[in-house]
Task: inverse folding
């Protein structure tokens, strides 16, 4: 396929483009922003450009009137006579038929791409930390035998105006062969803020990928993103393999601090998890892990220390000073993370002893600091984090919910993966359930065999609320054993349980049940969240919140009705309750896609006030009060009506 | 032992000093430069300082008139009445008896220490790249639970005025424990030019060590230096273990470029050599390798590429463009070098395809660019490098000498180590040798058993010259078999050889002989050097040189008379010939001790003009002519008189 040189001004971006492609396609390939409201549909007329003709010695290029062929019919129709006389073309129409220099007038330069996320009301510019620049070098000759690195750096300066860059050591090691095996045409990946070229690839390689990972105590959620468009290309999640060293952060801290090589071991485990996630994401996308140019991590303070191999012994005890709180940029290779070997890992800042980077990420995603309304944000993980406030003031606290709401400590709990029951309804009359598993759109009993394997976080909240609304569980949380239903029975120890799925429906050959112990664990978790929110409202000085946002790294959205029904938070109109999924993961993704958001995260981490609730004198009493289920009959007419408690 | 806070102004350096020590001792411990021409002998009166009294809130310190006790008799004698009235004290006299703030007037501030090297005429300031700063932190409390890193960086800024530093990742990982296990008193090692704290140690640790290594094709020479004084604390050398992959650079390049993992293998071998040298130096000095804060490397271009794992395939063939030519700073851990894990390896710049950083180091040490006289510098290694010029113009070339002059390819050649014959004389009448081995001051035959094991580089040059002067070897290089001496004999193949040491004298149980093949190898080497020098003189346009400098990483100095006698360089009066030992190693050491010398090295690398001699049309003829030994009878009356050739 014949190719021609295309150079865009004023950006100076250049590259070889296949004959016949439009200028707009060339611009997209080379990462030049040209306004095209109609998406290249030859309708909007926004993509006006001016080809320049003549000999451009500096560019080693001749651009002639034949380079783009005559005006097309669309151009004759859309461009005014004056524009036609001034030589304007429409980038979407004009086909490349020769080497050409194209000037993009200010009016046609597109604003940076903005990602809008439907339903979450978020928008942010795409401004990743790394840039891909295509450069062409003059080959080494006996009369110009400069070093490869000097030659590359000069070409980058001349062709892209970036001065004083340095080559990362790992990029240098591959440079001689990459240059010569690719005819001296390469793409460099640059971290302009660090003045560094982090890698060099052969040929024209505009694509760029990054990964954001939310490292929870129980679950890791990872997102592979296209750093040019912001698109999430792949998602993956897995259990935190540290779980064998304790289910909660305190036992992991104890292990790391109290055992010879304990820190090294837990660090190695989490790095291995990260590497497996990266490998899985890359394989599914059909790229190599070394093409992951950046990684953003968010986590609670304990996971932060363990993932970065920072001694965590002192964050677990008074005065709870962390090793580092500010954001960190660490070379992936220093952490043993397998991705672009010159790439950086960005760790978002942590707030206080028990409020981590994951909560900063939640704030970044939900932006209460830009809101007039008072938002209550509940992020459910092994620790629950709650934020309350608006642009005037932001408070946060941490609640020891335990991992029940994530599925750990629940008899049939599992992470959000195919086979997990994620949505549950129970008919108040028949006490029969309807449920849906991840990976299928059919609800039981519409399908006889559902392939259920367990219950994930959102399913646990759903089934708990449904049991309550159907009257199977009373306000105290006890299962009503007097109800006559084949679903309600006693286990071998005489404890009541509710059968959500019978063995025949499942893929595990066992009945999936909700036990009385499960219900107790969920009650404790929801009580911790409720009390936390109450304290924050008091500290803020408000008796209401304007909006409630439910977040959690569930991999499946929380049902807001269920959350309200179970009394997870103070009363709020259902229309002002929003479930947003994994907001911490979203925030990590935002920080991955926009470097300026990292500065915003740093400001947020300093701005938010941490409230310690466990030291309040009436904490125990309030907690006990909140364990009971709410009086919610007016909203859910069946709720509690069969209450036996 | 009671200790008091001592703070020096204007430097702001502070620390706890044992009661009774003098202010001068305190200054030395804290790295504060106070002029003391008499070395603290209470004689010169240069070390005048002014104690300041009162309460210093910012320093959290009370300084009283009792802090230094009354004027001593020496002070009363040396200080003028006016000085006494103004409160002056002599730092060498005044004993510390309480917390005190000491102001050091401009006149008493010492210039930076200058190292003078006797016999080499070198002097340079000590200005290492790394600094040690002692800092005291306020412990973390519930009301001040800042992160450890923020606390440290703020203390460094307040106590030493260094702003905007960052902590190297490896320093951060150990920070929490180092702070708390040392009562929040630590010493940080700073690389100010990189804005980085590279390590944190507990307590007051002003000592600082660095290593310079000259990596030759055949031999590595390493120097452990005190970065405060410039003193060479330990020296060590070893063979380059890559030797099994080829004796010359071209065969190593072929191996690295032509074999799967060839580069990784040769890189790993040289890094292992470096690590073993570092371990040996550290062990002998009684420190840990992690206390080596910096490493400077010099090498030829091929060793540069192999040591840094840069693909060397293209430096070995036209147009000989290296991967990188400028100086490089690489984290030791990225190279797999075991020293301070946050420390940097500085690689001096290389000049041209075949002239490496070792030659830049030679120029740095010998400074022809600061000289009016024309200097000819001959650096003998597996490749010989020659520089010629002065402040007006500098030329260099590289000569393929082969490793003979370093002892490789010589039947009994060995590196300069105990047991190596380093000096040789031969009586022209008896043809009996006198020789001296490294590790003993006695010359054979004054000792019967000398423990000789082989011959090192300087011994090879010596024995070659001695054989010629004694007439055993003629101008053509042939051994005269007609001489009657038990030392001259034929081997089992009938080849003539000269017995330098009989088996009974040696530690190896074998006669140490010089073979005809040895002599041929030495002749080729010296011819290459001679012709190189001749060409440089022609290019420069001079028929004479003012000074000849003989350098080589021999570990033992070349005998300049021997070098002249064998015709290694054009004629020059013996008094203007100087043997300087390992100038490349000296230059590496200078770059280790003074960061400004690295900028000078960069300028030198650009300034020096490389001359390619092998392409000259009359090269072969000149080379053949130079193989013969010189007409030197006028200088050495016996030379060649028994010549049979």
Result:
């Amino acid at each position: 396929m014949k190719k021609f040189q295309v150079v865009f001004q004023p950006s100076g971006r250049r590259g070889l483009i296949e004959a016949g492609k439009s200028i707009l396609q060339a611009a997209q390939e080379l990462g030049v922003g040209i306004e095209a409201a109609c998406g290249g549909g030859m309708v909007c007329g926004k993509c006006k450009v001016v080809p320049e003709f003549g000999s451009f010695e500096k560019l080693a290029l001749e651009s002639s009137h034949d380079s783009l062929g005559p005006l097309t019919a669309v151009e004759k129709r859309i461009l005014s006579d004056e524009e036609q006389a001034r030589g304007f073309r429409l980038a979407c129409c004009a086909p490349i038929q020769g080497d050409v220099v194209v000037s993009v007038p200010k009016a046609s330069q597109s604003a940076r791409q903005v990602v809008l996320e439907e339903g979450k009301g978020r928008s942010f510019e795409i401004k990743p930390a790394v840039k891909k620049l295509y450069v062409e070098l003059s080959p080494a000759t006996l009369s110009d035998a400069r070093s490869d690195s000097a030659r590359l750096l000069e070409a980058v300066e001349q062709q892209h105006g970036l001065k004083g860059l340095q080559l990362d050591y790992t990029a240098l090691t591959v440079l001689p062969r990459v240059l010569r095996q690719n005819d001296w045409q390469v793409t460099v990946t640059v971290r302009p803020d660090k003045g560094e070229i982090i890698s060099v690839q052969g040929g024209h390689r505009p694509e760029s990928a990054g990964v954001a990972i939310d490292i929870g105590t129980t679950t890791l959620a990872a997102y592979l993103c296209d750093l040019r468009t912001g698109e999430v290309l792949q998602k993956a999640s897995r259990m935190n393999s540290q779980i064998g060293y304790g289910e909660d952060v305190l036992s992991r801290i104890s292990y790391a601090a109290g055992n010879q090589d304990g820190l090294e071991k837990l660090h190695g485990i989490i790095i291995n998890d990260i590497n497996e996630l990266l490998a899985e994401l890359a394989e599914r996308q059909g790229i190599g892990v070394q093409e992951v140019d950046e990684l953003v991590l968010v986590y609670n303070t304990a996971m932060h220390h363990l993932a970065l191999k920072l001694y965590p012994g002192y964050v677990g005890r008074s005065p709870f000073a962390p090793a580092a709180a500010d954001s960190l940029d660490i070379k992936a290779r220093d952490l043993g993370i397998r991705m672009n070997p010159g790439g950086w890992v960005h760790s978002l800042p942590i707030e206080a002893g028990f409020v981590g980077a994951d909560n900063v990420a939640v704030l970044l995603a939900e932006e209460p600091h830009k809101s007039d309304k008072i938002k209550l944000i509940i992020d459910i993980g092994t620790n629950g984090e709650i934020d309350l406030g608006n642009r005037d003031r932001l408070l946060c606290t941490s609640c020891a919910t335990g991992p029940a709401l994530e599925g750990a400590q629940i008899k049939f709990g599992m992470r959000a993966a195919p086979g997990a029951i994620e949505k549950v309804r129970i008919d108040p009359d028949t006490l029969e359930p309807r449920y849906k598993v991840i990976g299928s759109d059919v609800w039981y009993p519409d399908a006889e065999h559902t392939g259920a394997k367990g219950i994930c976080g959102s399913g646990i909240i759903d089934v708990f609320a449904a049991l309550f609304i159907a009257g199977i569980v009373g306000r105290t949380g006890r299962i009503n054993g007097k109800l006559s239903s084949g679903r309600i029975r006693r286990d071998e120890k005489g404890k009541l349980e509710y059968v959500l799925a019978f063995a025949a429906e499942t893929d595990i050959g066992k009945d999936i049940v909700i036990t009385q112990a499960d219900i107790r664990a969920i009650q404790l978790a929801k009580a911790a969240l409720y009390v936390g929110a109450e304290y924050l409202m008091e500290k803020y000085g408000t008796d209401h919140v304007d909006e409630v946002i439910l977040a959690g790294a569930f991999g499946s959205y929380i049902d807001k009705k269920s959350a309200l029904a179970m009394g997870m938070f103070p009363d709020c109109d259902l229309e002002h309750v929003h479930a947003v999924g994994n907001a911490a993961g979203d925030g990590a993704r935002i920080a991955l896609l926009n470097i300026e958001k990292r500065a915003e995260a740093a400001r947020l981490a300093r701005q938010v006030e941490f409230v310690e609730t466990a030291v309040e004198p009436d904490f125990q009493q309030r907690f006990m009060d909140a364990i009971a289920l709410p009086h919610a009959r007016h909203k859910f007419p069946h709720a509690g009506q069969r209450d036996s408690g």
User: Anything to note?
Assistant: The CA atoms of residues 465 and 566 of chain B lie 5 Å apart. The mean pLDDT of chain B is 90.
